[in-house]
Structures are given as structure tokens and as C-alpha cells.
Amino acid sequence: MAGFRLLVGLGNPGSEYENTRHNAGAQWIEALARMSQCSLRTEKKFFGQFGKVFIGGQECYLLIPSTYMNLSGKAVQAVCQFYKISPQEILVAHDELDIDPGTVKLKKSGGHGGHNGLKDIINKLGNNRDFGRVRIGIGHPGHASKVAGYVLTKAPSDEYQKIEQTIDESLRYLEDIVADNWSNVMNHLHSFKA
């Protein structure tokens, strides 16, 4: 396998959710698109913002679902069916409560950890969890009851800047990430702290 063909950034649609913590994954794809000079356009059949880029000579599809977070799988499933993409060729960027702002981690597969976007993608892929993840740290509010409000609010500017720095840092390794050359990248990224 040559690496990842579909790069997905999770978030909620609409201006009221823009720059909220839950949209860190969508921000990752937006930053990647800017860096690659790719304009994302609304693609109704894929239920999202969609674009194509070449990364390290490989054609990749960029997707930000325009459904709400808990229906993210619908967009992923539509693109996968259309382009015959297997779960192993999907890389999902998402916000991660279990790591602090200013940190980012790569992960090969795994559960959803209560993340509704990941939950729906796993579900729509027929319970397949074997897709890659770029986990962007947003930190935890300290209590489970506070999570919903926390992820749907904007981070204070110092935290937000850390999240942005994390995104920029991870995109420096974009070719290796997409080509699945992770060992080197993980050493760098997992010790990075904005």
C-alpha cells in the first residue's frame, strides 16, 4: 500500500462552530489545502468540502464533512465508495481530549474514545477501525459532564495558538505522514510541545 489516499478533517459546519475546539481536524485540512494551494469546494454527492491534491507524487483527496460531527461517516463512506478507498487508506484528523493543547499524536487504528465523529466513521465503515488518525490535542475540561460544552466553545487565544502551531508542525511532515513513513515522524511529533 502506498499510504493514505483520503485525508479527512472533522468538525461541525456553520459559522457558529468555526474555530471551536471540536473543529481542530477541519482546521488541519484547511491548513493543508492552503499550503497545497488547493481550493476545497462543496461537493453534494460527498456531503462535504472536497478537493484533490498531490502530496509527494501521490494523488490524495481532501474532505471536510459538512454534516454534523455525529454524521461524519456519511461523507467518508460516500468518497470511499466512489473512489474505491479502503479503511486502511483513510487518515482522519480530529480533536483529542486526552492530550494537551500544543501536542499532536499519530495513531494507526483504535476505538473512538467517545468521539462522535470517529464513532460514526467506524460505524459507516462496517465497524472497521483500521484507519489512521492525526490526534490534535485540545485538553480535557476535567469532568465528563463538561465535555460537550467544552468542545463546542472556542479555546482561549493562547490555547488556540498552540493548536495552530501543532497543526503547522504536523504539516511539516505531511509527505511522510501520507506515505505512511511514520516512525521518523512520530519521534518528532510526539515530543513536540507548542
Automatic annotation (TrEMBL):
Its EC number is 3.1.1.29. The keyword Cytoplasm applies. The keyword Transcription does not apply. It is found in: Cytoplasm. TRNA binds at residues 17, 68, 70, 116. Keywords: Cytoplasm, Hydrolase, RNA-binding, tRNA-binding. The active site is at residue 22. GO terms for molecular function: peptidyl-tRNA hydrolase activity. Its main location: cytoplasm. It catalyses: an N-acyl-L-alpha-aminoacyl-tRNA + H2O = an N-acyl-L-amino acid + a tRNA + H(+). The record marks 95 as: Stabilizes the basic form of H active site to accept a proton. CDD domains: PTH (cd00462). InterPro entries: Pept_tRNA_hydro, Pept_tRNA_hydro_CS, Pept_tRNA_hydro_sf. NCBIfam families: pth. Monomer. Catalyzes the release of premature peptidyl moieties from peptidyl-tRNA molecules trapped in stalled 50S ribosomal subunits, and thus maintains levels of free tRNAs and 50S ribosomes. Hydrolyzes ribosome-free peptidyl-tRNAs (with 1 or more amino acids incorporated), which drop off the ribosome during protein synthesis, or as a result of ribosome stalling. This is Peptidyl-tRNA hydrolase.
